[in-house]
Protein 1
Amino acid sequence: MGQYEKLKGRVAVVTGGAGGIGKEICKCLSNEGAQVIMADLSESSAANAIAEINSAYNKVIYHELDVVSEQSWHTLYQYVEQRFSRLDILVNNAGIYLFKDIENTTLDDWNRVMSINATGVFLGTKLAIPLLRQNGSGSIINMSSTSGITGSPFEVAYTASKGSVRLFTKSAALYTAKDNIRINSVHPATTDTSMVEVLWESNKDLKKTVTENVPLGRLADPIEIAKAILFLASDDSSYITGTELIVDGGMTAI
């Protein structure tokens, strides 16, 4: 930790916090002084992630969360209010990926992806607003994707869900601007995490093809996405709301 901590005294919830990008977000925010609640469905994965993070910074704790359950969100926020009496930052990071074109996507596929990636963001954002309003300010960061900016023939449900996050973020940001609650979306390109490793295993040439299509010539590192989240969570972005921060190595510039 540095002498100046950008998030000192603030309380942050990070959903999907046990995964590759989520873990780096938790680490990055806690490193800047925030008390972080790692909200995740998998307690075992979260325990491993927290053990790694807290070896350096004792500022991350776990709470179970099923992002598609309204009651689960209520339970989480009740815990946050009772223990910390405030919420300053929400990072809606939880999500799933599906590599299927429209003809091979079932209705169950569609509903599952939309419920986790889009409905989960809606519930988390809606129910966080009263807590953030009590502070007179706050920052919500919703994880979208470059797939929420451009189309793809092979990820129809994923693209639709991430596009939903993008425009939902703008609508919600306009609503909460009067309360000084900022809401923005982050749009990473393919990031080097265990979630995408499954794709490489099933298609050995895909990683090479994806990497070659990135102008910077490499995949994103999770810490690079986490630092973008930190920027939007901190006062460094105090005049930014309702917009998308694209972290894609130049892909959407093509």
Note: Residues 11-192+221-245 form a domain with the Rossmann fold fold (CATH 3.40.50.720).
Protein 2
Amino acid sequence: MGEKLVQVKDLRIGYRTFEGYTSVLNGVSCYVDKGEKVGIVGETGCGKTTTVKAILRILVRQARITGGEIDFDGKNVLKMNRAELAVLRGSGISMIFQDPTLALNPVFTIGSQMSAVIRYSGEKGVENKDVRQELAVRALRETSLPDPERILQSYPFQLSGGMRQRICIAMAMATPRKLVIADEPTTNLDVTIQDQVLKILKSRVEEKQSSLILITHSLGVARETADRIYVMYAGNMVESARTASLFKRQLHPYSQALMSCIPKLSGGGVAEGIPGRIPGYLNPPPGCRFAPRCLYTREKCRQEQPPLVTVEEDHEAACFLYGGGG
């Protein structure tokens, strides 16, 4: 095991809505080592984005953190004041959002937006406009964007989706960051551009020796990018393993069901998917939240939440099939 950069312990978060209080994160625990690339995989609405936004403390006003801890590089994020959070967001962590169209301001040029991000980082010498220009040009070149000087003078709407996403990567890594969070950075791109963007993201993270949290729906994307993968379901981490171990053997019934949905080159028909749906967060099941869809459900599963237990070396699962007397 390496030195931990981020550690989330028993995090519980809900949202106030018109219908009532929704309990989304139900005791999430995870960590990222320094220099490690970690993938978080799960269905839409399972709490992936809520988890990473909590690390940056950028949750919406309706969110309520009701329990848990978040440590970043030895400091408790949940107890940081405004000045400490500014440093965290300026030089500690950067985030690449899902939709580059929404992430970039349409009324400012790319150059002015990159200049603001670089200046906010607090790096030495960035008060100088020429230094910021040089760093911006270099960052765009490193993400394989042609004619960076012209791009800096352009507005977001004048660029393609793939170019906008590369610009977001360049902005996130124009200055040194300890952690980069990428929230489904290829969702709105076609397949060929997806591959290019992911390769650029991976190479830039490795060159800068930064850690990476990659949120994705795709097990294939996680396999190509991450050293270790968390499988998330309905506000819980249900499995954690090194990437090779997870694809060799899935322990949790949800992970097994996810893997069975992947189309195979050998054919064999169309996968039917996982029966049922993620439970509502207004009145979630008291026990394992996957129990209503699981083939191995027992009475204990419906009443108690299974803990994340070590089954094999560096391979954990939250299921009574592997402990707890279920």
Note: The first helix runs from residue 48 to 56.
Protein 3
Amino acid sequence: MSAHLHDDPHAPIEENPEEPDYFDVLQTAIRELLVEKGLIGAGEVRAMIETLDAHAPALGSALVARAWSDPDFKERLLADGTAAIEEFGIDNYDGTELIVLEQTPDTHNLVVCTLCSCYPRPVLGLPPDWYKSRPYRTRAVREPRALLAEFGTTVPEDVTIRVHDSNANMRYLVLPMRPPGTEDWTEEQLAELATRDTMIGVTTARTP
């Protein structure tokens, strides 16, 4: 399996990225309505935005690096992702269950949310625009191999692609395969190899 680094939104699956999509408009309308009705305050909205901003893909990268370096932690992470991220010090503020999927030479995992944009925000922060777009949500299910190819990820025909559909109660995070030649690397060095896109499953880890 081969891939190139791809951290930016990919043009073929964008839908007018500079314009708000349906879900952007919907969430803005709901937020304004809740504030207007007095059900939440503007301060609560601001606090949540600050919480979201504090959670970034770097948290996920550090988590992956720890799993690569510590076999016991990796085992706990795969067994109970929710408990493991809290052990790691990540605030699971949305209360959803986190399932961690391990990439292997025989299986490539890809994460999507076909209904909206459910995403492991406590670990990765806000989702990229393309993750929320209709083309990505549709094609990830219908033609995942072709979609991955557009991200520069060529999955051999003898490798099974498993698509995992997130929902309001359950989110997925991909644990990429550790690149060879990194046996003596520190966790800080390893974290540089695990990008946001690798933890969604659209690319593989950077190579040294």
Note: The chain has two domains: 18-54, 56-200.
